[in-house]
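Letters spell out the chain; backbone shape is given numerically. Take this protein:
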Amino acid sequence: MFRTTMNLGLAIMLLLSCSQLRSFASNARAASNARAASNARAASNASAASNASAAGRIESKVETAKGVCDFLQAGLLWGTRVGGARFTISSGLLFNVQVVGADQVAGQDENSDDPSKRWLDQLSDSSFARRKDAAEQLKVIGASALPGLQRLSGSFNPDTAMLAKRLLIQIRKDVLLERLEAFQKDLQLDSQLRNPEVENGLPLWTLFKKSMGDSDGVRNLYSQAMERHAAEFIELQVDGSDVEGCLKRILNTSIGRGLFPRETISTILVLGNSKNLWPDALLKPEMANAIEQRLAYNTIAFSTNPYGELNRKLLGEWCSNRDIEKQGQISFNNYLLLVNNCQVTEALPKLLAIIEGARIPAYTRGTAILYASALATQEDLPKLEHIINDQTTIGSHPVAQTNISLRSNLGDLALIGLATRVGLEAESLGMEGVGDAASLQSSRNKFGFANNADRKRAIETWLKWRQKNLPDWPKSPVKL
């Protein structure tokens, strides 16, 4: 066997290769004739006839090989095989010639037990009808054709490679759906009678089980997700290098008006929470932002039905583990919108991190204060009290039918948030009341004071009321 790499632009190298091919043709003919004669003397008549037939096939292939040079000069060969010579052309500039000995050719002809081999070869045929026929036959053959298709997917012939890749996806999908059907049938059995082997090799099932546990609800949710996003599941199983690309396609799923089906939400959050899938264990800010923006408008999917509870668990994990400290203002705003719309109490530590962020815009920090006030438990409320000292200005607004303009700062938002949650009337602080915690997410500029003297009186009122009504709270960090 020998390999020769030639540049098509070099005529001399082309002629040398043609000379080599002619030499191969003569040697192959002599070797095949000698082999046929030897086998004929040593074997029965039937065996001799078989070998003579093989020799005839080799003779035919050798004659074909002699004409390869003409094909090369015409530039007609692209990833094809003639007799014992294999040719591949890359970008129309370089090609490789690999000539295999006659014994090897005969061996391939005699041992062609693989039913997919014929159809794999035909997949590179110049006839569209024959390529289509080969594709249909390979679909029928199924899993045993996958190794050959995998090799063809790297062909220098772009049409062959594309067709092989499509068949790989289709056959893998068919195989996995068959296994998923067995997985679903197993689900109908008592848990003690189930066959654990049906789980083996199901893409992403391990991540689903790790994220939500192993229950009938989780298995049903996984089955629905697998059926809807089979192509992405298979791609992630075969080559997990493009998690972002798969997730972008999944984010384009919709059942109308921007709503996600429940299994899509599960898939998005399972992938997003699995940090080991991402480079440096961190999603790109743009991707995290896109996920939060879409999920923020799917509040209904996190309702109290069993699947909603499962997705709610995943959402809590997303919000509590989100690496928001390095993100920009847009990402913060979408994160806050998601937390507020879905009432994610697990996000409180992240909200506090946003509030304390010195480089974070004051308007965003103000939003986080109001949302944290609304979501915090009674035990967590004291964690917000020190913010009353923060005098960072966030805006002002005029009072209707007066010449008074109220100025708001972050401390004012913390004060109204705490007062609302513990039952202190906002009017006693000289501020406009908001009713209840759910109403705190209103205009940040709504809460403020006309001057610092009014603000100081409000803080004194708070401290006195707190000391009398909240004796179990820790010592106040607020300074007048």
Summary: The two ends are 91 Å apart (CA to CA). Confidence is low (pLDDT under 50) at residues 1-22, 34-111.
